[in-house]
Prior knowledge:
- The protein is of the alpha+beta class and 178 residues long.
- It is built from three helices and ten strands.
- The longest helix has 14 residues.
Amino acid sequence: MDLTEKTLSSEKIFDGKILHIRRDTALLPNGQEAVREVVDHPGGVCVVALDDENRVLLVRQFRYPYMQLLREIPAGKLEYGEDPREAAIRELREETGATAGKFQSLGELYPSPGYCGEIIRMYLARELHFGETDLDEDEFLTLERVPFDQLVQEVMDGSIKDAKTMAAVLKTKVLLNL
């Protein structure tokens, strides 16, 4: 059975700075129609930055939708058409001051595929060198260095709630067999 849904019509609902929301009418595999509300997002990047002492750089920042401070790996939004690898290198430097001698892809993450088209590209950075941070004018965060094993435990016990951090840290654990 072909499970593909086909778009019959599309209507813009909201056109914001970052998010664009549309309401589509889709033809289902059984011939019926359904409404699909979709959030279009340019995508993002995140980086597990692992120093020479097997510590991961985390940023602590206030996340408005949850009204709480979260600890996450460095991350940022892509500009439409921007190269994800270059964006990840930029975000790592801006948020932590770090540049990496080794930089590799950990793959892609679809954070909420039921309604959002965002794709987050995950990276691993090693052989770190440090300089100055360069935060955006509306960005406020503090930097932490957390032992990798402790961070894995925090992911497993639920202390870390951010999906991109969980996925990237666990992929790093498997990749490096740490």
